[in-house]
Fold these 4 entries.
Entry 1:
Amino acid sequence: MSASASRLPGGCRHPEWQTYWEHIYADRDPAEVSWYQAHPEHSLSLIDDTGIGSTARIIDVGGGASTLVDHLLGAGYRNLTVLDIAAISIERARLRLGERASQVNWLVGDVTNFTTAQPFDVWHDRAVFHFLTNAQDRAFYVESMRNALTPNGQAIIATFSDSGPSQCSGLEVVRYNPAALSNTLGPCFHLVETLTEEHHTPYGGLQEFIYCRFCRNSEPATGL
């Protein structure tokens, strides 16, 4: 694995997203964004619940500024990938990790345009999917996730709940309950486990998240 971030071939489907998030991270310290967590308790718990071993392949989508990768390295996981649309967020994570950054595969790209030659055992996304307000972008995301996972691979997705905010970082979001999220992902994924989190932002606000763990069905997908 390389400590440097690789840009995905094919470019971004939405270059305006990349510009927007580059500005967000340029203006704020990673610990100042509203979704920051020093210890991503629920994500770690759900990853542990998958039952995967330390050599399993895990991708953290939108994880450039997240500390999840730090904790996964500390827990002994050895095949980690972080994907983010903002190169600056990945650069800051690499600097934070120091020498340990070389143990992670860093990718810059648009998740709705993501492909991989080596499928993952676990797909993790906290606070990316709810920004996809367009149905076609959600369909592209689901197709990317399905194709990126091994048969019977698992997906952990956290979004704002029905009681969560309707906007974040100046953008509209789509709020979900577990049934709605499961319906949006479609028949390729079946819901296994859910958790609810009351997330306290660095500025003293409160955001309610739902976390859902899905298993990818092994049969071919249809309709995407």
Entry 2:
Amino acid sequence: MKLIIAIIQPSKVEAVKEALNKVEVFRLTMIDCRGFGRQKGQSEMYRGHEVTVQLLNKVQLQVAVNEDFVEPTVNAIMEAGRTGPDGRIGDGKIFILPLEDCIRIRTGERGPEAI
């Protein structure tokens, strides 16, 4: 089992959800978050003054999957989350973490069956 954490642009959420549905991944958690990477924020005009926004709006997706779904899930997020054919700085990151256990609260099932 793996926990896939993806940080993506808010504008890509619907495309990523559709791509995940196509590879039969129907469960995910979304968290609104703020941060920056290599793009180091951006400048915006606010009431006639240029303001540098250090933390940009992002969306964090958390998807717990069994081993067979890791690559299809990652590929779906990469393809749908990428801006244009080559991507751009700020498109996001994907982290794949080992998932020691999973428990379904309703039934008490554990492990891969609980996902």
Entry 3:
Amino acid sequence: MLNLPIKLMLVEDHKLMRVGLKSLFDEQDELEVTSEAESGSQAIEKYKSTQPDVTLMDIGLPDISGIEATKKILELNNNAKVIILTSHLSEKEVLDSLQAGACAYVMKDINTDILKMIIQTIKEGAMWIDPLAVPILREKNTSVIPQRQMSRAMFRQQHSNLTQREYEVLKLVVDGKSNNEIAEALTISTHTAKAHVCNIIQKLLVDDRTQAAVKALKEGLV
């Protein structure tokens, strides 16, 4: 059976950004831009006519916001997959985006390979939050990413390939902490922090710390 490309809709009022994203995805066999919109209202109409698998939505649009457009799209199809792709990181916009039904909140400076991976996991039904936004959710809206308190015994039973210390490091990686910040938080050397991060990456079968954070959020490890 053929693996069909993921159909994307780009919603972005800046033409240069939209063209750049389309150019990026045109180089990927697994992704196909099937529609584009310059405004929120246009996005809603284009969604109706093209039914994309995943929509990449900017927040700052010239008529209604990307958050409002996301809400309207989810009213049309509660299984719609919308990724907020933005340069904004205010508490209100993060929370409002997720409450509107967005599956992901992604900053525009993200690595392109990671963005491709996020699109694929969102299509499969995952949720992804930029590590910079995670502390906001933990503090203000724990219902979005629930705090999971595990005993050592339960932790080892469910995730025996990670040590308890690696689990602590992983939580800090999800929070977007650097190796230096992890070292300071856990009172260990930067070299030891780096070693723990490398071990986590290997054990979770991912390529880098961002993918480790994605997997941790997707599988509820933190």
Entry 4:
Amino acid sequence: MKLIVAIIRPEKLEEIQQALAERDVYLMTVTEVRGCGRQRGYTEVYRGSEVKIRLIPKLKLEIAVTEPFVEATIEALVHAARTGDTGAIGDGKIFVLPMDDCVRIRTGERGAEAIGP
């Protein structure tokens, strides 16, 4: 089992959900976050003075999958989250973490059975 954490542009969420659904991956948690990477923020004019915005709004997706779905999930995320054909700075990152256990609270199921439908 793996926990896939993806930081993405907010406007890409629907495309990503559609790409994941095509690969039978439906379960995810979405959190609004702020962060910066190579974009390093931007400058905005507020009440006549320039303000440097360093933390950019992003979405964090947390997706728990079993081993057979890891590569399909990563592929869907990469293709759907990429801007244009070649991508752009700020498209995001994907982190793949080992997951020792998972428990479905309702039934008490553990492991891969708790992730499934």
